[in-house]
Amino acid sequence: MTLTDFIGTLAAVLTTGSFLPQAWHTFTTKDVSGISLGMYSVFTTGVAAWLIYGLLLQAWPIVIANAITLTLAATILVMKLRYR
């Protein structure tokens, strides 16, 4: 693995993994008071755009990372809409 691949993998793991605590907290407590609907709406749309970009480039690390991030962000967004 090259240094470039390592840095890209590390970035993908850290940024994608950063959503796990929020998703878990929101799922277990159903407390969405601290979540911005506007921010998560825009962010989820942006991640979807990154996913499409990765698919168009056939850049599978971008596709995989953003598919996972989109799933987590969309889950949080749905909980925000459901539990508000």
Rg from alpha-carbon coordinates:
14 Å
Low-confidence stretches: none
Tally of extended strands? 0
Instruction: Estimate the strand proportion.
Output: under 5%
Distance between the termini: 45 Å
The major beta sheet can be summarized as: none
Form type: elongated
Order of helices and strands: HHHH
Q: Roughly how much helix do the residues carry, as a percent range? A: over 70%
Mean pLDDT, nearest integer?
94
- What class do helices, strands and sheet pairing give? mainly alpha
Counted by DSSP, the helix tally is 4
Structure explained in plain terms:
It is a single chain. This protein has 84 residues and is mostly helical. It has 4 helices and no strands. Helix 1 packs parallel to helix 4.
Provide tags for this entry:
mainly alpha, 84 residues, 85% helix, 0% strand
Short description:
The chain has 84 residues and is an all-alpha fold. It is built from 4 helices and no strands.
Task: Please render the helix and strand layout as text.
Layout: H1 3-17, H2 19-29, H3 37-57, H4 60-83
Helix pairs in contact: 1-4, 2-4, 3-4
